[in-house]
Design a protein that fits this description.
The complex is a heterodimer of chains A (237) and B (372). Chain A has 237 residues and is of the alpha+beta class. Chain A has four helices and twelve strands, in the order ββββββααββββααββ. In chain B, 37% of the residues lie in helices and 20% in strands. Chain B has a six-stranded antiparallel β-sheet with strand order 8-13-12-2-1-11. A five-stranded antiparallel β-sheet of chain B has the order 5-6-7-9-10. A two-stranded antiparallel ribbon of chain B has the order 3-4. Classes of the chains: A alpha+beta (237), B alpha+beta (372). Chains A and B meet through α2 and β9 of A and β4 and α2 of B. Chain A: It comes from Phoxinus phoxinus (Eurasian minnow).
């Protein structure tokens, strides 16, 4: 994505013009790409991610999904730096077990979200470079989506896209699920089949325009019966 | 080691060292880092220092982390906002927009920047979203502990001092918090054992508030103004039991002066603390100040105050790119805080355009009359 950081002070693109000697320090972060999306319905939640793991110009893997199952009612999607994603999910799983052993019950989606916020903020000065989205069912059985920033600020939404193609997908979701900026339209609640179809269409569009998104799409559908997975192929180029 | 001395390389921080909070005078609240404080929910991890420094002399400021240069972060945190708070004869108004932006992208168009701490205190947050959210949680926790230990609520000034002291060790790092504490101080907040009596009196207060709200909505000139009691307020009140007013204290509070009454305080992560009548923070604050300075007077009615705050946020969102979407408004009085329904400002722009068109039509008619 072209951002203002790509252009130097003289208006020329930094990558293609000599702008003076640059000192390269070791950076502990890398960007591994990937897009994650979550949608909350009346009695279901969807968490979807692509399965491409890339770095710079190379693809490390075409089969590295970014959704991780935490409990029977909660799935987390993590995109950004893959090393931090793996460590963060290990830490969350360990904390879930600790909670289960001390409190004799599983963590609810809201509790997991609050806990993740404190875990992320504990690393305020050396953050986990991960964009998290938690999708699951709340205590009343309604769908819940919690979206995070890398340092732990979070809130509950009905839909959210995160990762490399998030800026392309979020406006589309605002329009189709949130009915924003549409007039004279009947605002029906989203059914599960329509939501799954919408997510598939949206990822196909993202794969068209974002180089870091593609290969395959994995959707986790969370209902009170459990978690069901669907895999859909995407562009591999 | 010899090489370390030659290079003036400073010893690295322990990777798992908890944050060095406050000096020992505050020992009853915070423990020193090496007594593992299991009560504290936060143990901040600091990365080992990469740069060597010329001077190794420890200074008084070594309890802050300004010497640490953080790794270059590949992402931006959310900033940019308009929040305001002011006091007047009938309480405090706190208002804010709802846009959270990250350097050009709007991360969240419906964030909540005004967070209630307890029944009589609300904090307007601006700066980095995560910092504000988490520090507000820490502040709420500390205030609740204070209330339980000392059987009275901490005043707004006290809360400001507490927050400022908690943020001080982080001065120089990129923690960015600009919090405006808006609340009502009252000496009546004693926790009473007669909870039954308190719930009965609370019902009376709620009745009075409901009558207030209908009166206001009748008077309002603008379309959809509604004042609704916050649902959470009841839970907060039940928890604290501390908002009961008997007749004597109600009379005392109605005369402003001394240690009770409306208050507004600003605390910044740089260490700045301000007290005043009118405070606005954020990228849209110059525009908000312009509107507020024009219309504020101590003797305003609630309706005028609400309208003023709303107008100030509306104008700021119009001129400032980083503010927008909706406006949230809270009104705090001696009885507690009330929240106005969140209003989408997009509609207001269309209404304003209609009003302008009306005016132009009126003027055209006037001109025709004088000519003809």
């Amino acid at each position: 994505m072209i951002s203002s950081q790509a252009y130097g002070d003289n208006g020329k693109m930094k990558d293609y013009h000599y702008s003076g000697p640059v000192e390269h320090k070791f950076s502990p972060y890398a960007f591994n790409g990937g897009t994650v999306l979550a949608v909350a319905g009346e009695d279901f939640a969807l968490v979807a991610s692509d399965t491409r793991l890339s770095e710079g110009y190379s693809i490390h893997s075409r089969d590295s999904p970014k959704c991780y199952k935490l409990t029977d009612t909660t799935v987390i999607g993590c995109s950004g730096f893959h090393g931090d994603c793996l460590t963060l999910t290990k830490i969350i799983e360990a904390r879930l077990k600790m909670y289960k052993h001390s409190n004799n019950k599983g963590m609810t989606s809201g509790a997991i979200a609050a806990m993740l916020s404190t875990i992320l903020y504990g690393r305020r000065f050396f953050p986990y470079y991960v964009y998290n989205i938690i999708g699951g069912l709340d205590e009343e059985g309604r769908g819940a989506v919690y979206s995070f920033d890398p340092v732990g600020s979070y809130q509950r939404d009905s839909y959210k896209a995160g990762g490399s193609a998030s800026a392309m997908l979020q406006p589309l979701l605002d329009n189709q699920i949130g009915f924003k900026n549409m007039e004279n339209v009947e605002q029906l609640p989203l059914s599960q089949d329509k939501a799954v179809q919408l997510v598939k269409d949206v990822f196909i569009s993202a794969a068209e325009r974002d180089v870091y998104t593609g290969d395959a799409l994995k959707i986790c559908i969370i209902t009170k019966e459990g978690i069901r997975e669907e895999v859909v192929p995407l562009r591999k180029d | 080691m010899a090489l370390q001395d030659v290079c003036d390389f400073l010893e690295t921080l322990d990777d798992s060292s908890p944050c060095t909070y406050l000096p020992n005078e505050m020992g009853y609240m915070w423990k020193t880092p090496f007594e593992f404080d299991r009560d504290s929910p936060f143990h901040f991890l600091f990365p080992p220092q990469q740069n060597s420094r010329k001077s190794k002399a420890p200074t008084l400021l070594s309890s802050t982390f300004s010497r640490l240069s953080p790794h270059q972060q590949p992402f931006q945190l959310s900033h940019g906002t308009t929040t305001l708070g002011f006091i007047f004869q009938d309480g405090v108004i706190a208002a804010a927009d709802t846009r959270a932006s990250c350097k050009g992208l709007i991360c969240c168009p419906i964030s909540q920047k005004i967070m209630p701490i307890h029944s009589h205190l609300v904090v307007n947050t601006s700066g980095s979203g995560a910092d504000c959210m988490l520090w507000e949680r820490i502040l709420t926790r500390e205030m609740r502990l204070y209330q339980l230990r000392h059987r009275r609520r901490l005043s707004v000034n006290g809360a400001a001092k507490l927050l400022s002291m908690m943020l001080h060790p982080f001065k120089g790092t990129n923690v960015c918090v600009g919090a405006t504490l808006c609340g009502w101080d009252g000496e009546e907040a004693q926790i009473r054992p007669e909870t039954l009596q308190s719930s009965v009196e609370m019902a009376d207060v709620k009745e009075a508030m409901k009558q207030d709200t209908t009166a206001i909505s009748d008077e309002s000139a603008l379309g959809s103004e509604k004042m609704a009691s916050k649902n959470e307020q009841e839970d907060i009140l039940k928890d604290t039991h501390a908002t009961v007013l008997d007749q004597n204290t109600k009379n005392a509070l109605s005369t402003f002066g001394g240690r009770s009454g409306p208050r507004v305080c600003y605390v910044c992560s740089d260490g700045l603390q301000l007290r005043g009548e009118l405070i606005s923070v954020g990228s849209g604050s110059p525009y908000a100040y312009a509107v507020l300075d024009d219309g504020w007077k101590w003797g305003m009615t609630v309706d005028e105050a609400v309208r003023l705050a709303r107008e100030a946020v509306f104008r700021a969102t119009h001129w400032d790119a980083y503010s927008g979407n909706n406006v949230d408004l809270f009104h705090i009085t001696a009885h507690g805080c009330r929240r106005r329904d969140r209003e989408d400002l997009k509609e207001e722009y269309y209404r304003e355009r209609e009003r302008e068109k009306e005016k132009i039509r009126e003027r055209a008619k006037e001109r025709q009359k004088t000519v003809g």
